[in-house]
Amino acid sequence: MKSLDQFINQYKPLVESRLKSAIAELEAPKALKDSMLYSLEAGGKRIRPLLLFATLEAFKCKPEIGLDAAAAIEMVHTYSLIHDDLPSMDDDDLRRGKPTNHKIYGEATAILAGDALLTHSFKMIGNISPETASADTKLVLINKLSEASGAEGMVGGQVADMEGEGKQLSLKELEYIHINKTGRLLTYSVLAGAELAEASEQVKDKLQVFAYHIGLAFQIRDDILDLEGTVEQIGKPVGSDTDNDKSTYPSLLTLEGAKKALQNHIDHAKQELVTTNLNTSILEQITDLIGLRTS
Amino acid sequence: MKSLDQFINQYKPLVESRLKSAIAELEAPKALKDSMLYSLEAGGKRIRPLLLFATLEAFKCKPEIGLDAAAAIEMVHTYSLIHDDLPSMDDDDLRRGKPTNHKIYGEATAILAGDALLTHSFKMIGNISPETASADTKLVLINKLSEASGAEGMVGGQVADMEGEGKQLSLKELEYIHINKTGRLLTYSVLAGAELAEASEQVKDKLQVFAYHIGLAFQIRDDILDLEGTVEQIGKPVGSDTDNDKSTYPSLLTLEGAKKALQNHIDHAKQELVTTNLNTSILEQITDLIGLRTS
Fold it and tell me: Which UniProt keywords apply (chains A, B) (predicted)?
């Protein structure tokens, strides 16, 4: 059985190199390309690409066929980080321990680098080779990427998050935010793999439930890390959610309650995986990683 | 022969109503939808949708088949205006005589409304009905929209424009900026019509030359208006380019020289149209409108 470490060592460099080449290919002003690449190269776990690759592995497809879709998803994720960090949004100076994009390139270029990454992501999918995906499959991938990341998904979640600041939210309101702000793009990563593998509707439904649970687990773990992690682990000041007066799982459920909810979502995710009868060993290990991650 | 006025009266309300319904259909936070709709409804000539409709008319196709693509283009154009107006970019308080988006909704929501409009535009095209466009045609439309509006097009032009501020640009540098910042999306509007009409490569090439000239004519007229227009006509302070120390066609060519260059591009555009042997009466009238427009 392949270990998660082996899997990560194989596929993380692959998507990172694809991201780099995609930017290098662009005929565009140097400052813009530099700014786009700076944030793409700022590191991170590449959890979304890995989820896509691991889903393909579950279907015994070559993970490589998901390379361009994985790069597209990472572009969308990266654009969202650049815009979230802006002075008018979270006003963060550090991201993964490095200066945020606007701190290096200025606010205007940072906004435009985000815009350009988002715009290019759709072409990355549109250009997937016809041997890998039919035109109809590519259109499904494009439509679902737009839904997952736009007003009805990630951007909507970010607006709801801003509206919730300084307010005492209900668990339902908090879940709406996280399902959209974080969960939708994680779910998309799994479902994009399923689309490329030509999964049945029934299996896609199961994978959607799986992804729903890991999406929430991811966010709960994030909230717990904000309280229990070190600056080195999380790359930003500890306790910044509390300082920003944000509702979090620990603030609503207590720290113990949040840990219990996290374990519940991890358990549900893994139970759902078993029912797919796929080759899910890597997906299971990623699920454990999400529950235990320290950065 | 149909007059341009009749054409505008028929198709401008159509695209405006489609934009409105597209936003109404979204399940998203109210503040986000309001902010998106505010800028979509801020008026304007809808020159891009009209170019697309007029191109379809030139092929004797029903302009209505271009409705969703036209709405998508207007969304991209509107997102670019919202982001351009931001304090870190042009810092404009007024747009078409009305407060800019961030003046009403705040900077964070304005950025996100722009992001959401851009994101949704790709789904608008992805969802064009299969009777109107094949999956392959839709992918061409998506890829070309990404190219025209991203790092290699509009966003790249905007970065070059910012880099050029306070510098004496050459005519070549100024043209690079405008071909990308304004021209590419105008050209796309024409070519999207040609794609939907299943035009031959030869005719598409001719229409691309036509669109290149009207794109530059559009920008030169803009620069002239900035000097000769009234606040009421242009919806912003007269002479703001000069105040912002921007290179313009009149500053490089003199006002007389700019007017001559404008007429040259209009003439070339119309000459190219004639060679297509299409039903180009509305496109010709739009070309004249671009040369003479006062707002």
Answer: Coiled coil, Isoprene biosynthesis, Magnesium, Metal-binding, Transferase
Instruction: Answer whether A218's CB lies under 8 Å from A50's CB.
Output: no
Q: Is a pLDDT exceeding 80 seen at residue B243?
A: no
How many other β-carbons are positioned within 10 Å of the β-carbon of residue B129?
8
Chain B residues whose beta carbon lies within 8 Å of the beta carbon of residue A105: none
Inter-chain contacts counted by CB atoms under 8 A, chains A and B: 156
Residue whose entry in the numeric block shows the structure tokens 């682990």: A233
Q: What is the tens place of the pLDDT at every residue in A140-161?
A: 999 999 999 999 999 999 999 9
- What is the per-residue pLDDT for A229? 74
Measured between beta carbons, the chain A residues lying within 8 angstroms of B150 are 115-116, 119-120, 123
| Beta partners for residue A98, in sequence order | A95
A108–B89 C-beta distance less than 8 A: yes
Distance of CA B273 to the CA centre of its chain: 19
Which domains does chain B show, CATH number per domain?
Answer: 4-292 (1.10.600.10)
Q: Which two tokens stand for residue A9?
A: 């060592």
d(CA A292, CA B199): 56
Q: Which residue of B has its CA nearest to A121?
A: B146
Question: Which residue in chain A has the smallest CA separation from B130?
Answer: A136
Residue with token string 């697309």: B52
Bridge partners, residue B94, by sequence: B99
Chain B residue closest to A139 (CA)?
B126
> In this predicted complex, what is the ipTM?
0.96
pLDDT digits (tens, 9 = 90+) for A23-53: 999 999 999 999 999 999 998 999 999 999 9
